[in-house]
Design goal:
This protein is α+β, with helices and mostly antiparallel strands. 40% of the residues lie in helices and 21% in strands. Keywords: Membrane, Transmembrane, Transmembrane helix.
Length: 173
């Protein structure tokens, strides 16, 4: 996986290429070359590319990996304080705990809008069960709340609903 150090190195090389294209564009205008306007466009593109690479070198792109977590998919996210993930109905309570912690860590962002009363991100985990053919029922198995103020604040409140696990179908051997 690419790290911020990699993006910083790419930014340096892109910056050098931008300066080379800028020098070529100036030279093309002095010597009245026919491709001078194309070189201006290329220089502008390289400026945008260099700026993007620099921005990627500032923000970490890593995802948290918690042992025991299972795959989940993001079903709902209001961009502020609420998100819902979908998980498999064959999950255990310990796997759900790890998955909720991983989801809360991965979904944290400085850009989330918190309200004044509740500066917490709430991530709920749900699965779908089929009690009868043609009927689907969502079952919320747990939730986690974490602070929106600080990324380093690792205090998360995990709630798991054991009564909801009783509704899940038993695996057949």
């Amino acid at each position: 996986m690419l790290t911020t150090a990699n993006f910083l190195q790419y930014t340096q090389w892109s910056g050098i290429a931008t300066l080379v294209f800028a020098a070529l564009a100036v030279l093309a205008f002095i010597l009245k070359w026919g491709i001078r306007f194309r070189l201006v466009g290329t220089t502008g593109f390289m400026l945008v590319l260099t700026g993007g690479l620099f921005a990627l070198s500032l923000a970490p792109l890593s995802r948290t990996v918690i042992p025991g977590a299972v795959r989940f998919s993001l079903v709902y996210d209001n961009g502020a304080t609420q998100a819902v993930i979908a998980i498999s109905p064959e999950i255990s309570p310990t796997q759900l705990d790890a998955t909720l912690r991983q989801a809360a860590s991965n979904l944290y962002s400085y850009g989330r809008l918190g309200t004044r009363q509740d500066n917490q991100l709430t991530v709920r985990a749900r699965t779908i069960i089929h009690p009868e053919p043609g009927i689907s029922v969502p079952v919320y198995l747990g939730q986690v709340k974490r602070s929106l103020v600080s990324r380093e604040n690792s205090e998360m409140t995990v709630e798991i609903y054991p009564d909801k696990f009783a509704q899940l179908p038993k695996p057949t051997a």
